Amino acid sequence: MLDVRVVKIGGNELDRPGWLESCARALSLSEPLVVVHGGGRAISAMSERLGLSAEKRDGLRVTTPEIAAVVEMVLAGPVNRQVVGALRDAGIDAVGLCGADGGLLEGHRVSEVLGHVGDIAVVRAALLESLLRAGLTPVIAPLAPEAGRADAVPLNVNADNAAAAVAAALQAEELLFVSDVAGVRVRGVAHPELAVSEIEGLIATGVATGGMAAKLRAAAGALAGGARAVRIGDLTLFDSSLAGTRIVAAAAQPA
């Protein structure tokens, strides 16, 4: 088993000047790793240009067949190339993939309400391990063909959930959710540690909403599936093992 980190890069940060380049430099000191990226802002911009309405429910994009085609075009195209290019400029031998490549991912639909949105059912971990052993860094666009429908437009998978599934399949040493937020804020302060048992309470009381709620639920899923550690935070995650918010399977017991 490889001691690999899985890093999910927030799609909203990709347009910030210099952010991706700073992230790539930090990642160059953290190999071996697998990178999963979002791209929600780019998808929304292209959808708007094409006159397609964008709607979200609980942080997930409602995806019609038309929007699913836009998601595939944007994530597997310019966004993936942008991330791969930045990593290669930082000296990382990155290779771009989407879930349809080599049967990397397979998904199933979440609900009829969300449309062409899926969760990961299968991760071909052996493919990722082969690339990692060859010294390559996989950069994954979170798209997954639907089981039994490999010829159809891939399902749109939330990038947090895709990263969690990959981390679980690889039994990753650590899963990092990296954005411009220092951690999970509780009463205005970034909390250093949260237990999985606290997550639904934070969501129910409105402390964690939207994208942060999705990250917390994905973190819980990653730990349950075999990932060894999860942290949520900004680029300081790469500077210190104490940075960000660590998600743990159980709350610490008092002495």
List the keywords.
single chain, alpha/beta, Carbamate kinase, eight-stranded mixed β-sheet
Give the class from helix and strand content and strand pairing. Answer: alpha/beta
Rg, alpha carbons:
17 Å
Give the proportion of residues in helices: 25-40%
Q: Tell me the name of the CATH homologous superfamily of the domain at 5-179.
A: Acetylglutamate kinase-like
- Spatially, the strands of the biggest sheet line up as 5-8-2-1-11-15-16-14
- CATH hierarchy class name of the domain at 5-179: Alpha Beta
Largest sheet: 8 strands, mixed
Element string (H = helix, E = strand): EHEHEEHEEEHEEEHEEEEHHEE
CATH topology of the domain at 5-179: Carbamate kinase
Strand content: 15-25%
**What characteristic shape results from the CA principal axes?**
globular
- Measure the end-to-end span: 34 Å
Uncertain ranges: none
On the 0-100 scale, what is the average pLDDT? Answer: 91
Q: Can you count the beta strands?
A: 16
Q: How many helix segments?
A: 7
Walkthrough of the structure:
The protein is α/β, with parallel strands linked by helices. It has a domain at 5-179: 3-Layer(aba) Sandwich (Carbamate kinase), CATH 3.40.1160.10. It contains 7 helices and 16 strands. It has an 8-stranded mixed sheet with strand order 5-8-2-1-11-15-16-14, sandwiched between helices. Strands 6-7-10-9 form a 4-stranded mixed sheet. It is globular.
SSE layout and pairing:
Blueprint: E1 5-9, H1 19-27, E2 33-37, H2 40-49, E3 56-57, E4 60-61, H3 65-89, E5 94-98, E6 105-109, E7 117-123, H4 125-133, E8 137-141, E9 143-144, E10 155-157, H5 159-170, E11 174-178, E12 185-186, E13 189-190, E14 193-195, H6 196-204, H7 210-225, E15 230-233, E16 245-248
Parallel strand pairs: 1-2, 1-11, 2-8, 5-8, 7-10, 11-15, 14-16
Antiparallel strand pairs: 3-4, 6-7, 9-10, 12-13, 15-16
